[in-house]
Amino acid sequence: MTANAPPTETVGLYGADASAARQRAAFRAGEVPVAVYGMGKIGLPLSLVYAEATGAVTGVDIDPGRVAALNDGANPFDHEPGVSSLLSNAVADGRFVATTDGEAAASAARVHVIVVPTVIDGDDDPDLAALEAAAETVRAGLDPGDAVFVESTVPPGTCADVIGPILTAGDREPGEFGLAHTPERTASGRALEDIRGSYPKIVGGVDAESARVAEFVYDELTDNEVIRTSDARTAECVKLFEGVYRDVNIALANELATLTDEFGVDVVETIEAANTQPFCDILTPGAGVGGHCIPYYPYFLLDGIDDRAALIRTARDVNERMPGFVVETLVDQLEATGSVDGATVALFGVAYRAGVPETRASPAIDIAHRLDRLGATVLAVDPILDALPEMPGEHVPLDEIAARDVDAAVLVTAHNEFDDFDWTAFERTGPDGERTGIPVVDGRQALDLSATAHDVYTVGRGWE
Q1: Are 420 and 374 in contact (CB under 8 A)?
Q2: Comparing 19-28, 145-154, 167-176, which segment has the lowest mean pLDDT?
């Protein structure tokens, strides 16, 4: 049996009369084919963990190039430990196959897992177009007894109010199939570890049987406990609450950091000392908050809330202002001796997080746009990116930036590759042999330039 050739007789889990032991045996034997819709940075590792537990998994994606690569065993996310070997083995063993034919995959599957991106539009409203399209694909092959799990992060009520009506359009009826929210709790760079059980798995169904099936399936995947919430809406809020907690906490740290000069203290040192009290856990300030999660979750939670939830809105505003604070700090120092207009500024780090080649909502993008509008030339240095996202700037290799004439620099993302960079390369020597430096803003408390002539501003510490 392979993922291309599911068993002649398949087993549905929702409303099944078979014992739990029989259902478990069927699942482990590949008699419950699984389709995972969305072969992104979460969907692919999730598919492979499913493939470890059951022998018939189909990964669905709209990108023919990605599908072809996956069927050749080529991993597009080489920063994820263990994925490459797991993929090649699953493909060779026939436990995993990828396809662009979502309807065919849906027709063959009994468990459908949707893990496509959910974003916000230009008005900060949730954009669920990809999720809705995936649900329509699932509907085309949905059979009684099937189960649909939504792993994508969504606004509260999405399963019941958006996905459910899509799945029941036509000749399907509520109660014929299961529908549950099973939010992913996965960080880039540790996807397999997290999916297999770094944290408890949350599941919540639109009805009790949906919740039972979700709990049953994920208990086969995770080494951790499975927590069943009272309903799908509660499960949807869990991931959002996690993200908003971090956003608010980071905003507190960032707001304190902007007051370093007024307080006359090193805010980072003060936070570290405060956190020795077990009831205090302030996070670390920085140049901004990026990624696929935290910048978006508050807007999912605020959808339809009118003008309430002032704390959540204020926290998001504080964090969105941090790139501007970085630029203002740099500009003030540049204009003390010259002008930002016509200056060349090196941005170190464009990826939103160190060691992760992803740029979604990276503060470096905002910083580059702000500098460009002020007339500066941006040189972007990021050794883990093959190309820059859509932003002003020239992508300069790390081993070439020292030869460029740079007037200022910002460390946005503290990649390990920057640890050995010789910052004295940006110093200038006058006729009398005196060394002069450039303004440097350290957005991650990662630089020790005390042996250089540079003027260094560290976010949360001030000028050194």
Answers
A1: no
A2: 167-176
- Annotated catalytic residue, options 159, 201, 237, 293: 293
CB neighbours of 444 closer than 8 A, spacing ≥ 6?
286, 287, 349, 354, 411, 412, 413, 414, 459
Based on the residue annotation, tell me whether 293 is a catalytic residue of this protein.
Answer: yes
Distance CA 253, CA 251 (A): 5
Overall pTM > 0.90:
yes
Please calculate the CA angle 234-152-53 and round it to the nearest 5 degrees.
100
CA distance 293 to 119: 9
The pLDDT score that the predictor gives to residue 162 is 97
Active-site residue, selected from the candidate residues 41, 159, 237, 239: 239
The answer for residues whose C-beta is within 8 angstroms of residue 399's C-beta and 6 or more apart is none
Beta-carbon contacts of 233 under 8 Å, excluding residues fewer than 6 positions away, are 156, 157, 159, 160, 204
Which residues 6+ apart lie within 8 Å of 354 measured at CB? 413, 414, 415, 416, 444
Domains of the chain, first to last: 20-230 (3.40.50.720), 234-464 (3.40.50.720)
Element (H, E) at 112: strand 111-114
